[in-house]
Write a structure and sequence with these properties.
Blueprint: E1 4-9, E2 13-17, H1 31-34, E3 39-43, H2 60-74, E4 79-84, H3 87-97, E5 102-108, H4 119-129, H5 136-139, H6 143-153, H7 161-173, H8 176-188, H9 192-197, E6 202-207, H10 215-225, E7 230-234, H11 242-261
Parallel strand pairs: 2-3, 2-4, 4-5, 5-6, 6-7
Antiparallel strand pairs: 1-3
Helix pairs in contact: 2-3, 4-8
């Protein structure tokens, strides 16, 4: 399986990391807003969508090292880094690891600090990271249970049926151990200091009713840590209805130039 599932567009390279237990398919709806300005590279992360595992724990730092190797293989030097949900932790880890290489950050639903994760989502991550998390493997195969879980805890009532079915397919292909590693990292990783030290462009998109992070609090922390950040907050939650997708593309289209122009005015 090719390590890069999406490589489209023209312009400076932008590597985007998909969300927890997802795949490059998660980012397809970003492309119309980005491919006119960037070469968008979206790998299936190790342990996701059947991609081979890493030979180490699957935390954000390990994924950042994987990304650096992938970029070297593709002959890409400087790059913009983006992420969706937990993928933002990887983008921030890459920026911390190689600040001279990352030209700017595009963060959708950024995970900046465990205290900004909503209580129900934090409870789920704790359960997954605990010994009980070993049950995740067999339980995820029950489509009815998995769908009920997402409807209760992840705004899945706002996701169209085709997208929900693809999410379930991604879930079945994801490695349980890798998922638990990243869940543990999200509970421990505090990345506000990376943002605070960041002087290059940074753009962020949040949905005001997101199920995973407290969007208003996250936006406030981001503004305080990086006053130059460009931030868009849209209505809706962690879902993919046509209206949400349209609003997201409009917001991304506004954010993309700020990365190239050097940040918010």
């Amino acid at each position: 399986m090719s390590p890069t599932r999406i490589d489209e567009g023209s312009g400076p390279p932008l590597i985007v990391f998909h969300g927890w237990n997802g795949s490059s398919h998660n980012v397809l709806r970003w492309l119309p807003a980005l491919v006119g300005r960037f070469r968008v590279i979206v790998p299936d992360l190790p342990g996701c969508n059947g991609a081979p595992l890493l030979g180490e724990r699957h935390d954000a730092d390990a994924y950042a090292r994987f990304a650096a190797r992938l970029l070297d293989t593709l002959g890409v030097g400087e790059v913009y880094a983006g992420g969706l949900c937990s993928g933002t932790a990887i983008a921030l880890a890459l920026a911390a690891r190689s600040p001279e290489r990352v030209r700017g950050l595009l963060l959708h639903t950024p995970f900046l600090d465990p205290v900004l994760i909503r209580p129900l989502a934090r409870l789920q991550l704790r359960a997954l990271a605990s010994p009980v998390g070993r049950l995740f493997g067999p339980l995820r195969k029950n489509t009815a249970l998995a769908t009920l879980h997402r409807r209760l805890f992840a705004n899945a009532a706002e996701v169209d049926a085709a997208q929900l079915a693809h999410d379930q397919s991604d879930l079945l292909l994801a490695d349980t151990g890798a998922a638990r590693d990243l869940a543990t990292d999200l509970l421990r990783g505090r990345r506000v200091d990376v943002v605070r030290a960041w002087r290059r462009p940074i753009a962020a998109l949040l949905a005001e009713s997101d199920a995973f992070v407290d969007a208003p609090a996250t936006a406030a922390v981001l503004r305080a840590a990086a006053p130059h950040a460009a931030i868009e907050v849209i209505t809706g939650g962690h879902g993919w209805t046509p209206a949400y997708v349209a609003a997201q593309q409009v917001a991304l289209a506004r954010l993309a130039p700020t990365l190239l122009d050097g940040g918010a005015s």
